[in-house]
Design a protein that fits this description.
Blueprint: H1 4-39, E1 42-55, E2 66-77, E3 80-86, H2 95-104, E4 110-116, E5 119-124, H3 131-158
Helix pairs in contact: 1-3
Length: 159
């Protein structure tokens, strides 16, 4: 077979290809979910809580001030009232951005809620952006390309 200088890139390339397949699978799941959410029916909902919560992240002195917009809403589907929270699982925000977002959803305001018709408890207040789908696909493609090139170069060196 070849020497270690050829096998190293081959193994790295193979690892990257495997990673790309896993990333591609996750990207495929995101695409299916994105399409489904865009097709969900809508109902009117009401903002029941809207504030900015201060969060001290991870004892990191370089990132000592972080904020999380907390927006809760309720909506009714087929006579059953549900409640959900928007943006709670997002990353921490700079204060000005968190305040601006909360101002878009004042307490008691009426909003459009999309809900899963098969599980009405699942809902979204804001549709996911196309970037939420494109970025994972692009990352999977990039990792696949780099892995494939490393493998091809390694195989050509072995020949």
């Amino acid at each position: 077979m070849g020497n270690l200088s050829t096998l190293g890139p081959l193994l790295i390339g193979l690892t990257l290809v495997v990673m790309a397949v896993r990333l591609g699978t996750k990207a495929g799941q995101r695409i299916r979910e994105w399409r489904a959410i865009h097709a969900w029916p809508t109902v009117s909902g009401t903002i029941t809580h809207s504030r900015v919560r201060y969060s001290a992240p991870y004892d990191d002195p370089d990132f000592s001030h972080a904020y999380l917009p907390v927006i809760r809403y309720s909506y009714t589907v087929d006579g059953v009232t549900y409640a959900d929270t928007a943006f709670a699982d997002e990353d921490l925000w700079p204060e000005a951005d968190a305040v601006r977002l909360v101002e878009q959803y004042p307490l008691n305001s009426v909003v459009t809620v999309r809900y899963d018709p098969h599980a009405p408890r699942r809902s979204v207040l804001v549709l996911p952006s196309p970037a939420d789908v494109v970025q994972p696909v692009a990352l999977a493609a990039l990792v696949l390309a780099v892995g494939t090139v490393l493998m091809l170069v390694s195989v050509l060196r072995l020949v």
